[in-house]
Amino acid sequence: MKHQINSFKFAFRGIWFTIKNESHMRFHMVAGFYVILFSFFYNLSKAEWAVILLLIASIMSAEIFNTCLEQLCNLNTQSYDPIARVAKDVAAGAVLVFTFVAIAVAYLFYFDLKTINSILQYFLQNPILAVLLVLSFILSALFVGFGPLGAKRIYHKIKSKK
Fold it and tell me: Does the active-site annotation cover 22?
């Protein structure tokens, strides 16, 4: 049983490493969050929800594999290596393929002007929620740009300048 518990611990440690160190992972997390949030405005079937969740998980998993491959390449090369560059580029390309497919699916599922207008009207009629949404966009941008510990780093930089 201890082995299984450690396996989960190691897996979460790997996910956390990717979140801390890869802005693309943080971007995919934020995008997934907003896709799920705005999905509630649509009348999605269970199958459509499954597709959305599988795409989000696939993109995030691909980003984790990409990070793994990058770390392995960095481990085995002390200087520029064209083969390592190709391996990293190909892994990044795999993430991009998943992302393009997700964008295409999002277009198919979500491009409905009537529903988009109803979402806009909802937030115009609920200004507090609109402000919260804008604040969440700002916090999301900071999270993507600076990471989960970014606010702490920014605070220490500002504090050290005084």
Answer: no
